Amino acid sequence: MQVKFENDPTPSAATVTRPLLDWYDRHARDLPWRVSPADRRRGVLPDPYRVWLSEVMLQQTTVAAVKSYFAAFLARWPSVEALAAAPSEAVMGAWAGLGYYARARNLHACAKAVAAEHGGVFPNSAAGLKRLPGIGDYTSAAIAAIAFDEPVAVVDGNIERVVSRLFAIETPLPQSRPLIRHHVDALTPADRPGDFAQAMMDLGATICTPRRPACIVCPAQPVCTGRRAGIAERLPAKLPKRAKPQRRGAAFVAVRPADGAVWLRRRPAAGMLGGMAEPPSSAWSAKADGALGPAAAPFPGDWRRVGSVAHGFTHFDLELDVWRTETAATPAAEGWWSAPDQLGTVALPTLMRKAVTLALKDRKAST
DNA sequence: GAATCGTGGCT
DNA sequence: TAGCCAAGATT
């Protein structure tokens, strides 16, 4: 007796794409940058500026973290021309805390390019979009599909996980990427490519989650090869990561007694926290050496150690010693005094904000 | 192709 | 807790 085809279906446009789009019609997440499937059926497409802004913010960043930044950017810069005309310091300041600051530099460069070279109109194809700063394989495809309904394969981390499970791909990432892309190409529909991409991402974010996927309510469960094989939860396979080294550095927070202003400077445009503000800081070395004391300060002063802050970066952990001094004299160095009421909007990355906060807390406690 | 580049939340 | 993870791009 032969097994009937219906009892052993395979992931395909008929068995995955259509059920998933039906599921999306009922369960799409309501997100500030999104047009609902109902409205899209009426011909409404989202503003490419909003799609682009959200996609760049969402690179390696959670929806929850992005929401307030998206609202703030949109309120302050309602169009790509407005963003293009903004000072760099304002853009970096508004991005502060969101991380991966090259994104903010590229975001601004991209806005300027669209305004100056494209008449303020985003290219309407993935190929055109990918030529712009900060827009790579994923983001170009996502904008083209979501904002223009171009039938291109969109592959992000969610979709890599969903497809790895659907097809029981045991080859670890990133080697499995070509095969995953092949499957996404075959599943992407010509009629609703934007909704399909968003549906796959919603599925990955809410049901086909990294741990403990809710297969019982998954619209693709009947055809999921990984589920059938009992290996879905441990897919996608990934290569082991290297251990994170520990580094150490020092930050020097000078405070002006008259008004409590803090002396800040701008980091070089390239590299770690590029273009962001900081109190003068040492380099971050692999081990603590003698250079971490007041001798490493950018200018002489009555430096007192007030403690340290710990911060985890992607590829190393940092312990930053924080030193504080009071000085009325403007230092003979590059930088500026930032008054207390300005500190909230200055482009301080989280690490440096921690350091400044610790120094000011110590100052308040010691007076 | 591998390394670089942040941060906050979750388990 | 310590590790893992999130709508990746760039060099």
Automatic annotation (TrEMBL):
<comment type="similarity">
    <text>Belongs to the Nth/MutY family.</text>
</comment>
<keyword id="KW-0479">Metal-binding</keyword>
<dbReference type="InterPro" id="IPR023170">
    <property type="entry name" value="HhH_base_excis_C"/>
</dbReference>
<dbReference type="Pfam" id="PF00730">
    <property type="entry name" value="HhH-GPD"/>
</dbReference>
<keyword id="KW-0326">Glycosidase</keyword>
<keyword id="KW-0227">DNA damage</keyword>
<protein>
    <recommendedName>
        <fullName>Adenine DNA glycosylase</fullName>
        <ecNumber>3.2.2.31</ecNumber>
    </recommendedName>
</protein>
<dbReference type="InterPro" id="IPR015797">
    <property type="entry name" value="NUDIX_hydrolase-like_dom_sf"/>
</dbReference>
<dbReference type="GO" id="GO:0032357">
    <property type="term" value="F:oxidized purine DNA binding"/>
</dbReference>
<dbReference type="InterPro" id="IPR003265">
    <property type="entry name" value="HhH-GPD_domain"/>
</dbReference>
<dbReference type="GO" id="GO:0051539">
    <property type="term" value="F:4 iron, 4 sulfur cluster binding"/>
</dbReference>
<dbReference type="GO" id="GO:0035485">
    <property type="term" value="F:adenine/guanine mispair binding"/>
</dbReference>
<keyword id="KW-0234">DNA repair</keyword>
<feature type="domain" description="HhH-GPD">
    <location>
        <begin position="57"/>
        <end position="206"/>
    </location>
</feature>
<dbReference type="GO" id="GO:0006298">
    <property type="term" value="P:mismatch repair"/>
</dbReference>
<dbReference type="InterPro" id="IPR011257">
    <property type="entry name" value="DNA_glycosylase"/>
</dbReference>
<keyword id="KW-0408">Iron</keyword>
<keyword id="KW-0378">Hydrolase</keyword>
<dbReference type="GO" id="GO:0034039">
    <property type="term" value="F:8-oxo-7,8-dihydroguanine DNA N-glycosylase activity"/>
</dbReference>
<dbReference type="Pfam" id="PF14815">
    <property type="entry name" value="NUDIX_4"/>
</dbReference>
<dbReference type="InterPro" id="IPR044298">
    <property type="entry name" value="MIG/MutY"/>
</dbReference>
<dbReference type="GO" id="GO:0006284">
    <property type="term" value="P:base-excision repair"/>
</dbReference>
<comment type="function">
    <text>Adenine glycosylase active on G-A mispairs. MutY also corrects error-prone DNA synthesis past GO lesions which are due to the oxidatively damaged form of guanine: 7,8-dihydro-8-oxoguanine (8-oxo-dGTP).</text>
</comment>
<dbReference type="InterPro" id="IPR004035">
    <property type="entry name" value="Endouclease-III_FeS-bd_BS"/>
</dbReference>
<dbReference type="GO" id="GO:0000701">
    <property type="term" value="F:purine-specific mismatch base pair DNA N-glycosylase activity"/>
</dbReference>
<dbReference type="GO" id="GO:0046872">
    <property type="term" value="F:metal ion binding"/>
</dbReference>
<dbReference type="InterPro" id="IPR029119">
    <property type="entry name" value="MutY_C"/>
</dbReference>
<keyword id="KW-0004">4Fe-4S</keyword>
<keyword id="KW-0411">Iron-sulfur</keyword>
<dbReference type="InterPro" id="IPR005760">
    <property type="entry name" value="A/G_AdeGlyc_MutY"/>
</dbReference>
